[in-house]
Write a structure and sequence with these properties.
Blueprint (H helix, E strand, L loop, with lengths): L1 H21 L8 E7 L2 E6 L11 H18 L5 E3 L5 E4 L7 H21 L1
Antiparallel strand pairs: 1-2, 2-4, 3-4
Helix pairs in contact: 1-3, 2-3
Length: about 120
């Protein structure tokens, strides 16, 4: 459909802006790495930024399912927290999202990840 092509074009054009906005999260001590492309990213969560030490299974359970998923939802953001590999938050906004939505998304993620870090 025409709308599909318009959304695809917008996502292609906005992909770099989305990534650069997400990269602000790498300043947080809990953020280890940002992986992805276009409108689909995974933010790796770490216990130690320098050593890239990960969270153990119990910590993942408490952090991802016990706190992050619910808190992000309360703030209006639906993200998938996953620990089948490295513990990550998967971020994939609608294809029609633009800079204002990217800023809002990163603001919420930054606030909630800062809360999570304080709880550790």
């Amino acid at each position: 459909t025409m709308l599909g092509w318009v959304a695809f074009g917008a996502s292609r054009d906005n992909g770099a802006a989305f990534r650069s906005t997400l990269e602000q999260l790498l300043d947080l001590p809990i953020a280890g790495d940002l992986r992805g492309t276009g409108f689909f990213y995974a933010l790796e969560l770490v216990k130690d930024e320098e050593t890239r030490e990960s969270f153990d299974a119990d910590e993942c359970e408490t952090l991802l399912r016990g706190f992050l998923s619910g808190r992000l939802f309360e703030k209006g953001l639906i993200c998938r927290a996953d620990d089948r590999g490295d513990p990550v938050i998967q971020i994939s906004p609608p294809l029609v999202a633009g800079r204002a939505e990217f800023e809002e998304l990163v603001g919420i993620l930054g606030e909630v990840l800062t809360e999570a870090w304080a709880r550790l």
